[in-house]
């Protein structure tokens, strides 16, 4: 679970492509919504790094690139939901609308299609983060 007493929310951004990670961070900015604290981004490029960050705890949300290789975000999301107790909400970036059913299988809370629409990504992330801060 996320520590809501801290001054920032930690968002994990996973992609083997640094440009995708940069797009996510630029789309969300330092404060995706006025009702939320500032965001601290943790960028990772490999599945083992995702697992290490999840094991460390304190994440409010994870954004996983479904097109990442060799471990795609949908498979990583499935493994996280199956194996990590109190996993944070997960948003998977999908390359094709037909992949939406895989997001259901992976138990990701939301999907956003590539190419990224910054407004859609922000709306999705804020919708998942705001319940964390109810009453804050």
From TrEMBL:
Keywords: DNA-binding, Phosphoprotein. One of its GO terms (biological process) is phosphorelay signal transduction system. It comes from the Bacteria. Residues 10-129 form the Response regulatory domain. The modification 4-aspartylphosphate is found at residue 65. GO terms for molecular function: DNA binding. This is DNA-binding response OmpR family regulator. The lineage of its organism: Bacteria, Bacillati, Actinomycetota, Actinomycetes, Propionibacteriales.
């Amino acid at each position: 679970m996320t520590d809501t007493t801290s001054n920032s929310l930690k968002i994990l951004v996973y992609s083997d492509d640094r440009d995708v990670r940069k797009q996510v961070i630029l789309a969300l900015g330092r404060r995706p919504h006025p009702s939320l604290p500032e965001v601290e981004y943790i960028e990772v490029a490999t599945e083992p790094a995702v697992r290490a960050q999840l094991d460390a705890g304190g994440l409010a949300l994870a954004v996983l690139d479904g097109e990442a290789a060799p471990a795609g975000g949908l498979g990583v999301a499935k493994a996280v939901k199956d194996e990590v107790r109190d996993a944070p909400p997960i948003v998977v970036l999908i390359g094709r609308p037909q992949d939406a059913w895989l997001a259901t299988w992976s138990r990701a809370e939301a999907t956003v299609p590539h190419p990224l629409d910054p407004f859609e990504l922000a709306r999705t992330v804020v919708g998942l983060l705001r319940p964390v801060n109810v009453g804050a």
